[in-house]
Amino acid sequence: MISALALTRRFGARVAVDAVTFTVNRSEIVALLGPNGAGKTTTLRMLAGLIAPTRGSVVIDQVRMTRRTAGMLRARIGFLTEMPGLWDRLSVRENLQVFAALYPLNRPNDAVDRALDTFDLADRASTRTAELSKGMRQKVALARALLHDPAVLLLDEPMSGLDPEITRTVRTLLEDRRAAGCAILVSTHNLDEAERMADRVAVLDGKLLAIDRPAALRQRLTTGRVVVRVASNAAPFVGTARTLAPDAKADDSTLILTLPQPERDTPVLVRALVAAGADVLEVRPEIPALEDVYLHLLGGD
Question: How far is residue 100's CA from residue 87's CA, in Å, rounded to a whole number?
Answer without folding.
Answer: 14
